[in-house]
């Protein structure tokens, strides 16, 4: 392992684009299936991993939703999140904003309360035991109805103090941001912060990015790499200092082109680009592996790597004082 590897490992990091259900490793899937008396159609973790054959967002999502059927009880959600937080802490993530997909569970009969109490308990334990802080972002499934999203929003209100914001994920095709205009307006009124996925190379990617900015008024965009194709959108992203949570390893699986050059361009342009891991159990890389890959592809020096981390702390939904404390720790980092 070289010096740059050690430098990246030790960097004080912040993760902003991470689906907790996408951290469900095959070994934990087997353990939870056994706990819940479920039979999986694979002999072992290696055979399961070999079946992870996806080439685009739709084919990935099919495997992702199938996988989470083993999550049933509160302890299952606890174990899932605690395992992620321990892994993140081992890579020097100091703070993570974590997506969860409540409808992917309520839609198969698991209560909202079961999901969120398990996640919350793991967050508290991880902060106390491991020293990693985190917040939850509730995502709506964009390929399901706006009515179901609104019902989920209302169901979340008793737990408002445990959820920092809302997002939009799942299959983007024919599911534009404006489909959820009323849901996001209500979420804003309830005090939630707003973000949305604009996955890479979707039909209407640019129109969806425009809607996120103009019609929804998001505080940041998840992925959003296609913004580079439109100078007017780039100008808006810069002017409004809209952060982009980019996931390079994920992108290389679900698009047929790598996005490394785009990350370099965004950094050069002074955009708030950040590196994240998306669904690491499926794409085979957590945040450090994403940094290592981008460093290798773009030959980034220490200052640029620190800039990527600073962008994430700047983009995080933290109080000014907490953010400044993390940024000071990052500025002091020498590797
Ligand atoms: N895009 C859309 N939906 C998702 C993703 C993603 O990156 N990960 C998990 N669900
Ligand atoms: Zn995502």
Helices and strands, with pairings:
Layout lengths: L2 H8 L2 E3 L10 H10 L9 H6 L6 H11 L6 H17 L2 E8 L2 H4 L5 H19 L2 E9 L4 H11 L6 E7 L11 H9 L3 E6 L6 H12 L3 E4 L7 H9 L4 E3 L1 H7 L5 H9 L4 E3 L4 H4 L3 H12 L3 H14 L4 H13 L3
Parallel strand pairs: 1-2, 2-3, 3-4, 4-5, 5-6, 6-7, 7-8
The chain binds hypoxanthine (HPA) and zinc ion.
Structure summary:
By secondary structure, the protein is of the alpha/beta class. 52% of the residues lie in helices and 13% in strands. The chain has one domain (3-329): TIM Barrel (Alpha-Beta Barrel), CATH 3.20.20.140.
Give a written overview of the molecule.
The protein has one domain: TIM Barrel, CATH 3.20.20. Helix 5 runs parallel beside helix 7, helix 8 (146-156) packs parallel to helix 9 and helix 16 (302-315) runs antiparallel to helix 17. The mean pLDDT is 97. The chain has 17 helices and eight strands. The chain has an eight-stranded parallel beta sheet with strand order 1-2-3-4-5-6-7-8. By secondary structure, the protein is an alpha/beta fold. The structure holds hypoxanthine and zinc ion (ZN). The site of hypoxanthine has 11 residues, from helix 4.
């Amino acid at each position: 392992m070289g010096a740059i590897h050690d430098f990246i490992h030790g960097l004080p990091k912040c993760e902003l684009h991470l689906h907790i259900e996408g951290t469900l490793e095959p070994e934990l899937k087997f353990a939870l299936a056994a706990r819940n008396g479920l039979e999986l159609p694979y002999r072992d973790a290696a055979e399961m991993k070999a079946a992870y054959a996806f080439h685009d967002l739709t084919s990935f999502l099919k495997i992702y939703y199938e996988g989470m059927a083993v999550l049933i009880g509160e302890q299952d959600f606890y174990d899932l999140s605690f395992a992620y937080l321990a892994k993140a802490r081992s890579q020097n993530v100091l703070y993570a904003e974590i997506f969860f997909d409540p409808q992917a569970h309520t839609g198969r009969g698991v209560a909202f309360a079961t999901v969120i109490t398990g996640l919350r308990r793991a967050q508290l334990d991880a902060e106390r035991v491991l020293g990693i802080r985190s917040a939850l972002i509730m995502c709506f499934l964009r390929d399901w109805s706006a009515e179901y999203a609104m019902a989920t929003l209302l169901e979340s209100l008793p737990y408002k103090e445990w959820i920092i914001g809302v997002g939009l994920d799942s299959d983007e095709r024919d599911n534009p941001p404006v489909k959820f205009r009323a849901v996001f307006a209500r979420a804003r009124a309830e005090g939630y912060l707003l973000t949305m996925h604009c996955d890479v190379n979707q039909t209407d990617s640019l129109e969806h990015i425009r809607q996120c900015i103009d019609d929804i008024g998001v505080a940041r965009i998840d992925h959003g790499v296609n913004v580079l194709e439109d100078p007017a959108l780039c100008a808006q992203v810069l002017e409004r200092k809209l952060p982009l949570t980019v996931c390079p390893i994920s992108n290389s699986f679900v698009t047929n082109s790598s996005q490394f050059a785009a990350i370099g361009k965004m950094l050069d342009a002074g955009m708030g680009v950040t590196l994240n891991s998306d669904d690491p159990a499926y794409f085979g890389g957590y945040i450090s592996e994403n940094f290592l890959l981008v460093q290798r592809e773009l030959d980034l020096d220490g200052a640029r790597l620190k800039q990527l981390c600073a962008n994430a702390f700047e983009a995080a939904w933290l109080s000014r004082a907490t953010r400044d404390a993390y940024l000071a720790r990052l500025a002091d980092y020498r590797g």
